[in-house]
Amino acid sequence: MADELDLSKLDEIFRKHEGEDGALIPVLQEAQQIYGYLPEDVLAAVGKHLHVSMSRIYGVVTFYAQFYLNPRGRHTVRVCRGTACHVRGGKSVLNTAKEVLGIEDGETTPDFNFSLETVACLGTCFLAPVMMVDRSYYGRLIPRKVASIINQHS
């Protein structure tokens, strides 16, 4: 990586959780808040400080969907793939989002403006098909609306 990470930003997190049992997940969450994702150098520093093996750390960060190992976009587009959304055209919503953004599920645009992910359910089945951009829900979608919504956030 061309830019050196400032790992001293972790010191406050380590002090806050000093001697705490089960600190791994909260420490990882707070580290991700600082860096936007969990770079390998950060994971190594967390492992060293908490005396946790890298294999255990990777087991945790790959198990929980809340953790990201790659840089994320400024905006997150989440497309529901639940049953109600699926039967009401969710696949076309996802395909349009992929086309507009030029990326696949789980990827981030080269300009780091958007990350795209699918989720099992957004809990708004009555609005199916649904997607979210950041914390805003958009329902009863058709492909034309998907493109317009994404473009509003550019």
Which helices and strands occur, and which strands form pairs?
Elements: H1 11-16, H2 24-35, H3 40-50, H4 54-63, E1 75-80, H5 83-87, H6 90-101, E2 114-119, E3 131-133, E4 136-138, H7 143-152
Parallel strand pairs: 1-2
Antiparallel strand pairs: 1-3, 3-4
The beta-strand count equals: 4
Question: What best-fitting shape do the alpha-carbon axes yield?
Answer: elongated
Specify the CATH homologous superfamily of the largest domain.
Glutaredoxin
CATH fold descriptor of the largest domain: Glutaredoxin
> Biggest sheet, in brief?
4 strands, mixed
Helix content: 40-55%
Question: Residue-averaged pLDDT, rounded?
Answer: 94
The largest sheet has its strands arranged as 2-1-3-4
CATH architecture descriptor of the largest domain = 3-Layer(aba) Sandwich
Report how far apart the termini are.
27 Å
Q: From N to C, what is the helix and strand string?
A: HHHHEHHEEEH
Structural class: alpha+beta
Rg over CA atoms: 18 Å
The first-level CATH class name of the largest domain: Alpha Beta
* Content of β-strand: 5-15%
**Structural domain count:** 2
Stretches where pLDDT falls below 50 for ≥5 residues? none
* Count, helices: 7
Please explain how this structure is put together:
- It is a single chain.
- This protein is an alpha+beta fold.
- Helix content is 43%, strand content 12%.
- It has seven helices and four strands; from the N terminus they run ααααβααβββα.
- It has helices spanning 11-16, 24-35, 40-50, 54-63, 83-87, 90-101, 143-152, and strands spanning 75-80, 114-119, 131-133, 136-138.
- The protein has a four-stranded mixed sheet, covered by helices on one side.
- α2 runs antiparallel to α3 (40-50) and α6 (90-101) crosses α7 (143-152).
- The chain starts with 10 loop residues before the first helix and ends with a helix.
- The relative contact order is 0.12.
